[in-house]
Amino acid sequence: MTDACEFLWYIPNDVKPGHRGDSATGDHNSFDALTSHALALERFGWKGALIGTGWGRPDTFTVAASLAARTRTFEPLIAIRPGYWRPANLASAAATLDHLSGGRVRINIVSGQDDFAAYGDEEGDQAQRYARTREFMQLVRRLWTEEKVNFRGTYFSVSNATVQPRPQQRNGRVHPKLYFGGASEAAERVAATEADVQLFWGEPLADIAQRIERLRSLSDELGRELAPLEFGLRITTLVRDTTEQAWADAEAKVAAMAENNGTGWHDHQNFVATGQRRLLDLATRGKVLDGNLYTAPGKVGGGGAGTTWLVGSATDVARSLKKYRDLGITQFILSDTPYLAEIERQGLKLLPLLRDERMPAQARPAP
């Protein structure tokens, strides 16, 4: 893949052990355990990690700041929610951490359903949530780049606001990238004008191609004023030494999920958003799509990035990811469990192939 592509991992940040089949140890979310993940990501060639969020999990920003302090190159992609945060508070906190860490902060804006009332937010409908998110992103960006900001919107207001210190500016980067997800029409209209990176879950290549084309057209139609929208893929990658071993392990893992009714895999099942419904519906099109996109996990409880998996040898999975690259994906957020062991396995076996331009994204027959 090209130098423009970046490869991140995932840190679930969950008080409950056994997230998506992870090792169910009592200290799984201790500071030492989380630090070991971040240090392993540095050691085995990953850029950083998405850190999960949601009411009932440890505060994501606090975790990210702690890990940034214990690492040198690790870049946290910090998932945050408008409503839990106000834009000026987030802009200041993120700019401070970015300044102290030497420009390592990335922000993932999450607008999906949550236990809003638990932290004093109001649920609202989809249109309200995404209208508020649009204002949130506009205001955060202005606070990072302008002085004495005055803004009076429907949901947020500031007067004479200047954020200090500023985010680190380096290599053409003015401020932390704003990542964003969502597959509804309302979400895509926000992404088309306000996001730096639109994240997709593991849909088939043709579906991703259609979404990229639609978002680029929307960007033009709505008069996007920012740099061209980038695209990212958040997906589970089950990698083994051979294709046969990978599929045997994938099927065994799905069988175990079915026996436990998907326990530990349901973190996107309480509220079935448009993007989640798209993933769950893929199983009606086949158990395996595009050669190695496995849809069976969604039928037995897999949610979010655990709904579909790319399965195979490192070569199989690298070729599949390069096909997404050829569609325009530049940001890859991968994971499998147990998380810590897979950071090393995929760092040693998969990442070198992804960075090897000599291996094309050629077709491979289905197993």
What topology emerges from the helices and strands here?
Layout: E1 6-11, H1 31-43, E2 48-51, H2 60-69, E3 75-80, H3 87-101, E4 106-109, H4 126-145, E5 149-152, E6 157-161, E7 178-180, H5 185-194, E8 197-200, H6 205-221, E9 230-240, H7 243-259, H8 274-281, E10 288-289, E11 293-294, H9 296-299, E12 309-313, H10 314-327, E13 329-335, H11 339-349, H12 351-354
Parallel strand pairs: 1-2, 1-13, 2-3, 3-4, 4-7, 7-8, 8-9, 9-12, 9-13
Antiparallel strand pairs: 5-6, 10-11, 11-12
Helix pairs in contact: 1-11, 3-4, 4-5, 5-6
Strand content: 15-25%
* Biggest sheet layout: 8 strands, parallel, barrel
Rounded average pLDDT: 91
| Rg from Cα | 20 Å
Low-confidence stretches: 363-367
Spatial ordering of strands, largest sheet: 1-2-3-4-7-8-9-13
Q: Looking at the structure, what is the overall shape?
A: globular
Helix content: 25-40%
Report the total helices. Answer: 12
Q: Can you count the beta strands?
A: 13
Distance between the amino and carboxyl termini: 25 Å
| Category by helix and strand content | alpha/beta
* Element-by-element helix/strand order: EHEHEHEHEEEHEHEHHEEHEHEHH
